[in-house]
């Protein structure tokens, strides 16, 4: 009789089943540190996105990326907080995700370090030409970042009366005049002689700013000072060097502190894109 019963017994390895008991009350299972961190990041990204949209002036819709980051961080937090779901995920997949995350952080850190390395860029006196990169021109005058560039350019031009300046930037759909025309009027009204100001009013990007401006000078011989905001100097210099400017120096203007995280993140993607397509 014992033998018959034994024949109907299910092997131990086939009968194993893990039962998770849901913890309730004060002894409820605590959230993982990773889930909490990503939840906090999601809230911060969402708040920053809304702050830019509601209270700060912005020239592009890039700030929406912070909203997308909030969604991604929220989803990651949700997954990390679900123990059963984490148990079901293949180990190989989890290892690959962790490796990609670490490599992404390293890449981000290196690029941001390069950007920060040119935050305080200064230029030697006596340049032949200066190029002021364009930015949004509003109905009531230059945007904050463009005004900072123009004021920094004005300081250098007043101290170096033999330097010519190229103001570079076309007219966007939301701009009353071309950026170059607006900058021309700003500098001339500040006392810079009109014959020293050259206009390049067709460009729509940093690359085009530099490419179109190169026809107004000699890239191989002339010393050129490139004026832009601190977060933008590194990319501007590298684009110019790749384009054949042999004597290029960045001159860093200040930027709006509250918008710096947004501008730094945008520069990161800009550098990655330009490197990918061979412009850097």
> Segments where pLDDT lies below 50 for 5+ residues?
none
Going by CATH, what is the homologous superfamily of the largest domain?
HUPs
Largest sheet: 5 strands, parallel
Compute the gyration radius: what is it? 28 Å
What's the arrangement of strands in the largest beta sheet?
5-4-1-6-7
- Specify the overall morphology: elongated
Number of structurally distinct domains? 2
State the end-to-end distance: 83 Å
- Reading off the top of the CATH hierarchy, the class of the largest domain is best stated as Alpha Beta
Name the CATH architecture of the largest domain.
3-Layer(aba) Sandwich
User: What portion of residues is helical?
Assistant: 40-55%
Query: What is the H/E string?
Result: HHHHHHEEEHEHEHEHEH
Q: How much of the polypeptide forms β-strand, as a percent range?
A: 5-15%
Query: Mean of residue pLDDT?
Result: 90
Summing up helix and strand content along with how strands pair, one would put the structural category as alpha/beta
Do you know the CATH topology of the largest domain? Rossmann fold
Number of strands: 7
Number of helices: 11
Question: What descriptors fit this protein?
Answer:
280 residues; elongated; 2 domains; 5-stranded parallel sheet; alpha/beta
Describe this structure in words.
The chain has 280 residues and is of the alpha/beta class. It folds into two domains: 31-116, no CATH class; 129-276, Rossmann fold (3-Layer(aba) Sandwich), CATH 3.40.50. It has eleven helices and seven strands. The protein has a five-stranded parallel sheet, with helices on both faces. A two-stranded antiparallel sheet has the order 2-3. Strand 4 (164-168), helix 8 and strand 5 form a beta-alpha-beta unit.
């Amino acid at each position: 009789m014992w033998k018959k019963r034994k024949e109907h017994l299910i092997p131990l390895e086939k009968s194993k089943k893990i039962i998770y008991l849901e913890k309730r009350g004060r002894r409820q299972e605590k959230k993982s540190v990773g889930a909490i961190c990503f939840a906090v990041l999601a809230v911060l990204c969402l708040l920053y996105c809304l702050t830019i949209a509601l209270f700060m002036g912005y020239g592009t819709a890039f700030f929406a990326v912070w909203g997308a980051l909030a969604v991604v961080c929220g989803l990651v937090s949700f997954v990390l907080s679900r123990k059963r779901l984490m148990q079901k995920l293949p180990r190989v997949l989890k290892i690959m995700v962790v490796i990609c995350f670490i490599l992404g952080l390293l890449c981000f850190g290196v690029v941001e370090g390069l950007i920060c390395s040119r935050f305080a860029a200064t230029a030697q006196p006596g340049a032949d030409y200066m190029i002021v990169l364009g930015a949004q021109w509003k109905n009531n005058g230059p945007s904050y970042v463009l005004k900072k560039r123009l004021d920094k350019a004005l300081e250098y031009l007043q101290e170096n009366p033999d330097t010519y300046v190229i103001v570079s930037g076309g007219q966007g759909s939301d701009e009353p005049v071309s950026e170059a025309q607006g900058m021309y009027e700003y500098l001339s009204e500040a006392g810079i002689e009109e014959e020293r100001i050259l206009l390049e009013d067709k460009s729509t990007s940093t690359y085009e700013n530099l490419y179109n401006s190169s026809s107004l000078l000699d890239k191989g011989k002339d010393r050129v000072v490139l004026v832009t905001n601190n977060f933008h100097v590194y990319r501007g210099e590298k684009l110019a060097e790749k384009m054949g400017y042999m004597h290029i120096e960045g001159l860093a203007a200040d930027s709006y502190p509250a918008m710096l995280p947004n501008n730094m993140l945008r520069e990161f993607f800009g550098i990655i894109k330009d490197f990918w397509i061979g412009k850097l």
